[in-house]
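It is worth pausing here to work through a concrete case rather than discussing structure prediction in the abstract. The textbook approach is simple: state the sequence, then state the predicted structure, then interpret. We follow exactly that order.
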Amino acid sequence: MKTNFSAITVTVLFLILGAYQTLFSQQFSIKSGLLVSSFTNKVLQSYDNFYQTDKDNVFISVHTEFTLNERFSIEPGISFNSKGYAEGSSSYSELPNGVRGVRYSVSISYLELPVLTKFYINSGKTRFFATAGAYVAAGLFGNTKTRNDENRNVRSSLNWTSENQINAYKRLDFGGIFGIGVQSNKMQIGLNIGRGFNTISIFDDIEMSKVRNKTWTLYVGYFI
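Step two, the predicted structure:
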């Protein structure tokens, strides 16, 4: 009886999988491009002559697009990218990490899992589309860098613990993604905007209590 039940279960699973693949066609794609990132809060923003610059990085991702109908599809994927920001002040200041400096930057490398809903605005050979969805990401490694008053860079690895330090960050990040693009044959070009919902800093200073990632990406994709 137990053997029969197992056989029936396996058969049902294969039938469901076959029906799923029949109902929803799928395509694989590779995307790569420019990712520009920043944080919502800054360490030096209360100091004199503050300035902030975004971090520019290259990312790569692999996606599977499941077509629901002519207009809608669902696109899960996996991406490797780097996020962070850089800021500075024209005057030397005592930073929360005890280093006297004028420039501070953070770089965090993530393994990210986005899931997007794609809406094709028109049909035909060249199609415009809009996307909306969410992502969850795990921090793999990263570092902070401070330029001190001797014009030397002091580099520190990120601390993935709960210690109250300026270089202490959470591995987990999640947020929303919105974008637009155009597809022609097997090529696509798009622009996405991402905003983190999770506070990634553990440092409990007021200026650093609500640090979230924010990004925009310009990419080129190719369907395999």
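Step three, interpretation. The domain at 25-223 is CATH 2.40.160.20 (Porin). The radius of gyration is 22 Å.
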